[in-house]
Write a structure and sequence with these properties.
With 119 residues, this protein is an alpha+beta fold. The protein has 2 helices and 5 strands; from the N terminus they run ααβββββ. It has helices at residues 2-31, 33-57, and strands at 79-82, 85-91, 97-104, 107-112, 117-118. It has a 5-stranded antiparallel sheet with strand order 1-2-3-4-5, with helices on one face. β4 (107-112) and β5 form a beta hairpin.
Length: 119
Amino acid sequence: MIQVKAVKKIIIFIFILLFSFLILFFLYWNIGNGYVNHAKKIGKQIIEKIDNYKNINGKNPDSFIDLGLAPNDMWGGIGTEYKGINFWYDRISDNDYVIYFDLSVGEALYYNSYTKEWE
């Protein structure tokens, strides 16, 4: 009888441990690097659209509208929601631009077309 209770406690402990691991993994994926990596993949698609536009027109687009992406009402319409991620675009010159997305309040990850790096 005592052994059955001990086995049940071990099984419950393992279940709680696995459940906790799943919750932590979910939080990591949705809040941590999983979100950043996902947003970078989506951002790469926008970068390809900008580069294709530049190859055809000889200059960077003035806004997301030139890429066929509808602006949203955030920050005066200069941002767009693309595949569930909010992006912003700043045209620096005919050759250079920056796109970025929010990581948290007051913090963003930027892609600089000059360096071809996320910063």
